[in-house]
Design a protein that fits this description.
This is Reticulon-like protein. It is a multi-pass membrane protein. This protein is mainly α. The chain is built from nine helices and no strands. The longest helix is centred in the first third of the chain and has 30 residues, at 41-70. It is elongated, with a radius of gyration of 26 Å.
Length: 201
C-alpha cells in the first residue's frame, strides 16, 4: 500500500495535479542539481544538511520560547516526525532487491546479446545509438544531462497528456517507418537470428 501511495504522489507531481507542489519539487531539484554542478557532492551535502539542521534548531528554540511565554506545554514540535515509522521492512527490502536483480539480469543479458552480435540488425542499431551518444557526450557533461532529464520529467509527461492523440499518431508513423527499414535491412543482410534458425533446421 505504501508503494501505491508513493507511485500516486510521483504521478501527481510530474503531471502537475498540484501546481504548487510540482513547482516546488521542480525548483528544489533544479537548485540541488545546479549546486552539484558548481560544487562537490560533499560540499552540497554538508551545506544542505547544515541548512536543515539550522532551520530545525531555530524552529525548536522558537517553539520553546513561545511555550514559555504562553505558559503552555505542547511538547516537542517535531513529535509527529519523531514518532513516524521510517524503517524499511524486511519484506520491502527483499522485494526491492528482487526487482533490482531482475532488472540487472535483464540488462546483462541484453548487453551480452548486443555486443556478441546475436542479431546483426539489433547490434547495428545499438552501434548507431552509441555513435550518437558520442556527440551527446561531446556537447553535454553528465550533470547537464541529469538537469535536462529532470526538466523533461516535469514537462514531457504533461505535454504528452495534453497532446496525446497527435503524439501517438506521429509515433505510430515513426514506428512503422522504422519497422519498414528494419525489415529491408534484415532481408538484405540475412544474418542474425534468422540465419541461425535456418542453420538449426
Amino acid at each position: 500500500m505504501g508503494s501505491d501511495s508513493a507511485d500516486v504522489t510521483l504521478e501527481s507531481l510530474i503531471y502537475w495535479r498540484n501546481a504548487a507542489r510540482s513547482g516546488a519539487a521542480l525548483g528544489a531539484g533544479l537548485a540541488l542539481l545546479v549546486a552539484l554542478a558548481c560544487c562537490s557532492v560533499v560540499s552540497v551535502l554538508a551545506y544542505v544538511s547544515l541548512l536543515a539542521l539550522s532551520a530545525a534548531v531555530a524552529f525548536r528554540l522558537y517553539k520553546n520560547v513561545l511555550q514559555a511565554v504562553q505558559k503552555t506545554n505542547d511538547g516537542h514540535p517535531f513529535k509527529w516526525l519523531l514518532e513516524a515509522e521510517v524503517s524499511v521492512s524486511a519484506e520491502r527490502a527483499q522485494a526491492l532487491a528482487a526487482a533490482a536483480t531482475a532488472h540487472l539480469n535483464a540488462a546483462l543479458y541484453e548487453l551480452r546479446r548486443l555486443f556478441l552480435v546475436e542479431d546483426l540488425v539489433d547490434s547495428l542499431k545499438f552501434g548507431v545509438l552509441l555513435w550518437c551518444l558520442t556527440y551527446v557526450g561531446a556537447c553535454f557533461n553528465g550533470i547537464t544531462l541529469i538537469i535536462l532529464g529532470w526538466i523533461a520529467l516535469f514537462t514531457l509527461p504533461k505535454a504528452y497528456e495534453m497532446n496525446k492523440a497527435q503524439v501517438d499518431a506521429n509515433l505510430e508513423l515513426a514506428r512503422a517507418k522504422i519497422n519498414e527499414i528494419t525489415a529491408k535491412v534484415r532481408a538484405a543482410v540475412p544474418l542474425g537470428r534468422r540465419a541461425e534458425g535456418d542453420k538449426d533446421k
